[in-house]
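tool=predict chain=A
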Amino acid sequence: MINRFLRFWAIFLPLGTLILESESTWARPINVGSVNTQPASEIKKFLPIASYLAKHLQSEGISQGKVVVAKDMAEMGSLLREGKVDLYIDSAFPALAVNRLSGSKLFLRRWKKGIGEYHTVIFTRIDSNIDRIEDLKGKLIAFEEPYSTSGYFVPKAVLLQHGFKLASKTDGTNPVEKGEIGYVFTRADDATMMWVLRGRAHAGAMDNHSYLKEARDNLSSLKILYKTFSIPRQVVSHRGDLSAGLVAKIKEIFMNMQQSEEGKKTLQDFEKTTKFDEIPDQAMAPLLKLQNFIDAEFGVK
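tool=predict ok
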């Protein structure tokens, strides 16, 4: 009787107004976001985790997992505000910047390549006349790339906090004034190490794990000038208006992935991720103290 009643009224409703449809008709994707200027490689990298989430969220009306790649953090902020991205996975500084731009919420830590937290080291050659960061005035420091937390944001913020003036340079041949610290982007940690070892830059900055890896047999030729505070390796954010029930379900799925063979394989495929867990209490506190720097860096008002 009920089915006949629905069919009867469907005849008289204008096209597109029938709202009594199956759950599958209303299913939508879960959109996982990332920031990169090379979307094809980024989609390939993130698709395993997006697909895994979708498979385990079918009961929530999720049909498939999609990867949405923004060209910069401003665009990612817009996508989160507009509901076109549900989850955003990145290192801590971009995540906080996007949080300021969009109202997104940080809720999980990602152990990328087995690392839950790290800190930045600023280093130089042992035969240089640079013994402390104050000696970097009039010198050139090599950073990784504009979106790197450990290879740019943190060391730059620390130097600014110490009262230094930093000036961007297009390459290592640009002159550096006596009262400033010049910086250049090398685009990769191994390049940063080579710039320092070969004398193209007076100092470099990267996370402590990469420093040991890239220095290899050259550790005796280097010295560390400064170590920063520790921060989570990467974090997961969700858009501010995502339902609490769906957030709780996503959190449960992420935190239990290492309990199954399928989950462990997906983690491995996702840049050798070990696990997801809660962000430790106060883990983000040092970065939150740099809020003014974040706002200035990204034009947040």
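The two ends are 59 Å apart (CA to CA). The longest strand covers residues 62-70.
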